[in-house]
Amino acid sequence: MLARINHRYPVPSSADGTFSPAGIREVLGIPGPRTDRFAESLPFSSDDVTAGSENELQVAVAGDRRNVDLPLIIEHSNYFRNIVRRVASGDTSARAVTDLEKFLENNLDGIWDNSWVRFPKTCLNSFAMQTLDRDLLADKARGDGPLRRDAAKFFCRQDGEELLRIPISYLLKLSLAQVIGSGSELPEVLARDANEYMEHFLSDNTSPETYSFHVVPLCPSTGLGRALAKEAAKRFLLCHLLVRYANHAFGLEAHGQKAMVHFSPHPPVLQKDLNNCISDSFYRELFMSPCLSGWSNGEKKHAYMHLCHQVLSRSRLNAVAKLREAGLITRNLVVLPNLSNVSLANNGTHISIGSLKLTRLRAAGNPGFTQAHEKCIGDLVIKIVEHFLPLFVGTYTAAPYRLDFCDFHPELALGFLPHQLDYTHLRMIWRRWKRKADLGFFGRSLTPFGPIGLDRALSALFRMRGDLVPDFRLIDYPVAMMSTDRSPALDGTQGSEDRLKKDLSDLGIFDLQMPLYLPYRLREFSRVGFSGFEGRHYSLFESLDNDMTHAANLQTLVTALAFKYALQGKWTHSHIADNPRTESERRQIFFGSAIGLPTFYVREDTDNLFLRDIVVRTRNVRFSRRYRGYVRVYGTQYCKSLVELLRRDAADLAEALGVTETIDDLKCRLDRPGTHSSAGKLTAGILDEIGARAPLRVAAREFNLAAERYYRTILCRKHVDEALQFLEAHVKAIDLRRKSDGEAWRAAISASFADQDMSSFVSEARHLLRTSRIVPQDVVKLIHLVLLSVHVDARNARETINGKEDYDQAAGSRGR
Question: 690 pLDDT exceeds 60?
Fold first, then answer.
């Protein structure tokens, strides 16, 4: 069979003429492909990579409903009162009220996800108050201008006292401002840094977002991906400490509130419950970020996020029509998705990498590498890299989620996939997913009918337990909008994304103002100030030290390999056709990996010759008996074939980058996914939280609630502990430097550490944080140490990147 495919579809080796690999090599100063220095001279190879990350965090407020902002706002809202009146007059069902009352009354844990906090305005010191006053301006560039029109909603009166009410995303910034202006012995250089870092705390959806405090060089001397993981870990630690500080300094705990921050990939279960019983407008009022930080005109950005929520909610409804057209909905009884979509409340990590070489050329205006060249070669790199994305899903990040039998309506389970895959692959995925979930009875597929009582009875009668999805975030969120026949997104021509957005907007599933969703996105110099790529396919890292390190290494290696192929002329745009069917064919592997499907199907006559070349080298491939003209491929074997491809074609790059251990680690995760992959480790941790042996032995809701508890407690403590280990090792080195440099280092840190061993303090603080016995003064000390550590890291990064000009134009720390 393999010989037959090889014979019928030989791999072309000539360039397609869109750009000249030889010309680009000449401009970049890269020797010929057969020379010894070719690999190390490529973009994204040794000493050429800079990086930054953006992390989306989950927040919650613990407390009684009488003290926490979210239940108070709901209970005293006009929306709730109007519903009560309508029920009393018989205009609407009583369920509209009882569902809301259940949400308010049945929260036994007292955890209110994504709630705001409220505290006396008088708790703010002068600098924090100045920060708030500036952020409430309609236009922050005009210091004497008017306030935002919605400024009044950030204040309320309770028990005769004026309270400030803000989301936790803004609480982080305000807490840092409070530290800066608290009068503590924070050195001027660290205070200046902290003032800049405040703008790195923001949110435009629901959850808080932070992005790298400085550009991170990825090179062998810095540990490559581990340097990025250290920066992200310290930034998360600072968030954790700022929330602890705010709980005390702003009197949150005294007012019955305890703010929390952690990593979690899914919209909370109770938030989904609430979304199902309120209007889309009221949902946006409760959960969409007011965008107080990060933008000059926050009110305008807030309105834009309203637009995004409306568009995605409408897009999810439009997917139902596509499912009917695809033949997946065959009866008139369907469960319509809610008019309000919660997908914007999911959380992930974006890793951006940039090339110093490409950035320098674009900054210099070199005619040999223009915006057109950047777009052309960038689109080709993205298409190549997309074939490698299944290596990341479940192995390095995951989002385990249980679906009940009652959830297996195609209009609910398939999420945004109808807009991301063509009908053939959509049907294939749905059939295999139902088989994976064992939704069969005497050889016939059985899916829920719609009435919840009937579906639960069928589930109990036939022991239908549903399924565990390794990374449901990638299914429940629009990751990769599919091209149209007339407007391919990645054909290498300028304006291709805008043309596709116009087509999608006309179809009612997107909006021209929104950036095009792609799992791997080009970061163009003209837009962000550096030339590189952004990986948006990361969900939850079980370990920042281990998982994020290797993920960043692998992303860098695969990108460098794609450039190698492109500048060799081995693979060009003509080898990976730009049409929806071919695009869907390669992306179905990625989405199938997120669902946990064991197999996928590829056309014998596929016009994706790069994919064909990989499949040719994959073991246990056979012709499909069900789908004529297709071959069946095992996903695990495909991934192992990719690893062998990396060993064969990227060995020189792996050596130049110093990431050969990452390839070995990847192979280990693929061989032993239950114990070594991120999905396996996260699932095991959740099961330990429940005390169960297998996910399908636990009810779906119970499993998902346990996952949230695990992320909020045990996993959060692990991430904090990893960050403290990084911090302890770093301050130990700083202590040694301080002793040798004397007064120079004494002036760089807080006076409280003038004669104290900082690493010993961090070691003791680690224990106190684990037991929640740390005192506020020590929290402030730790914040100072994190700021000091980041300051030293940033200085070292500037020196490594070799020159301020390069540093300022390197791969931006902001992965947006």
Answer: yes
Contact criterion met (CB below 8 Å) for 588 and 426:
no
Nearest one of 528, 560, 561, 567 to 810, comparing CA atoms: 528
Whether the per-residue pLDDT at 530 is higher than 50: the answer is yes
Tokens of residue 24, six digits: 């680009």
Residue indicated by tokens 């690893």: 643
Which residues share a beta bridge with 155? 164
For residues 411 and 405, the answer to whether their CB atoms sit within 8 Å is no
Residue located via tokens 């994190």: 786
Residue 109, φ and ψ in degrees, nearest 5: -75, -15
Q: How confident is the model at residue 446 (pLDDT cuts 50, 70, 90)?
A: confident
Question: Phi and psi dihedrals of 660, rounded to 5?
Answer: -60, -30
3-state secondary structure of 364: helix
d(CA 309, CA 705): 25
Nearest to residue 53, comparing CAs of 191, 227, 259? 227
Q: CA geometry: angle at 182 spanning 176 and 184, to 5°?
A: 105
Residue with tokens 């959830």: 407
Buried b (16+ CB within 10 A) or exposed e, 598-619: ebbbbbbebbbbbbbbbbbbbe
- Average pLDDT (799-814) is 54
The label of the residue with tokens 């224990």 reads 767
Pairing of strands 201-202, 209-211: antiparallel
Positive/negative CA dihedral, 341, 344, 347, 349: positive
Helix (H) or strand (E) holding 522: strand 520-523
Collapsing DSSP to helix, strand or coil, 340 comes out as coil
Reference 229, options 1, 542, 602; nearest CA is 542
Q: Dmax of the chain from CA atoms?
A: 83
CA 216 – CA 657 distance, rounded (Å): 15
**Distance between CA 437 and CA 673 in Å, rounded?**
19
The enclosing H or E element of 716 equals helix 716-741
Is 318 in contact with 489 (CB distance < 8 Å)? no
Average pLDDT over residues 282-289: 94
More confident residue, 195 or 11: 195
The pair of structure tokens assigned to 337 is 């998705």
pTM: 0.94
Q: How confident is the model at residue 486 (pLDDT cuts 50, 70, 90)?
A: very high
Count H helices and E strands in the chain, helices first: 33, 20
Has residue 788 got a pLDDT over 80? yes
Q: Is 32 exposed, middle or buried (0-12, 13-18, 19+ CB in 10 A)?
A: exposed
- Measured CA to CA, the distance from residue 449 to residue 731 in angstroms comes to 60
Find where tokens 């407390």 sit.
63
